[in-house]
Amino acid sequence: MADSSAPTRVMMAVNESSLKGYPHPSISCRTAFDWTLSKLVRSNPGGFHFLFLHIQVPDEDGFDDMDSIYASPDDFHQMKQRDKIRGLHLLEYFVNQCHQLGIKCEAWIRHGDPKEVICNEVKRVQPDLLVVGSRGLGPFQRVFVGTVSEFCVKHAECPVITIKRKATEAPQDPVDD
Amino acid sequence: MADSSAPTRVMMAVNESSLKGYPHPSISCRTAFDWTLSKLVRSNPGGFHFLFLHIQVPDEDGFDDMDSIYASPDDFHQMKQRDKIRGLHLLEYFVNQCHQLGIKCEAWIRHGDPKEVICNEVKRVQPDLLVVGSRGLGPFQRVFVGTVSEFCVKHAECPVITIKRKATEAPQDPVDD
């Protein structure tokens, strides 16, 4: 069973934390990443190639700018630049980690509805595996799986692994991440 | 990143083929097993420990005996023995493959409703990962995910990977497997 074949291409959708803010990754995507490293990659960094996809949702990203005044096209341009920089900082976190561990990776940003963009990118990039984190309600409760992960399991054209956030890591408001 | 930690414990629910019959594994669970070997285990057999769970559904297994006459408790006993042997032969297929590849494994049989038994066994055995195969309707169609895999993604208390059967491997009647 020599590892002569091409590395396993693992696509991972990552997003910002709604609590800690810029440039922290969300609890669930960090959990999913750490789990994938320790339980799948293990001692075999050359066997895996990570593909980090960050999707910026236009409405959501504009939230912080609610009180801003947009008086000219330049203002919108600046906002877009700021969003882009936030996204790049988020991706930097994951790319740095891979770099330190000797795992090859790529990272990019897309805009739109996360669940649709993820499935479209799976179709385009054809990874071997899609990893999606999800918020959960703890080990002994009925578990709620977010619509994004549920949609991906049904529609993505590759195997999908769903990793729930640990109950101990859930914030006070489980909608936060 | 030395592999000093305990092996990743991968639970896999396996079932008989509805087409090829005894003792063949279903297309979807064989696909899921082969995928897990080539894409996750790769060249690291010592890093993984497989846990094969076969669930026998009382009604389904009795189907072949529809025309039999059950005249005494012994008849039922014999039927149960036959079911057990079928189940053991199925598990033997997976245990043999692991043995050849040098992967540690365990295998056992349970009775009941597959989706509930799987989630209960996850709670009891606490694997790192649950692998479930599912029937799919091909890469360019909307994909149908069986209720078992869907239920497990929502309710199993560990990360779950859903692996869809390849469209090219789907039998004429996609309900078959």
UniProtKB/TrEMBL annotation, chains A, B:
InterPro entries the UniProt entry points to: At3g01520-like_plant, Rossmann-like_a/b/a_fold, Universal_stress_UspA, UspA
Top-level taxon of the source organism: Eukaryota
Residue ranges annotated for the UspA domain, each copy included: 29-164
Pfam families given in the database record: Usp
Coiled coil regions in record: none
GO molecular function: AMP binding
SUPFAM superfamilies: Adenine nucleotide alpha hydrolases-like
Name the UniProt record assigns to this protein: UspA domain-containing protein
Protein's organism: Digitaria exilis
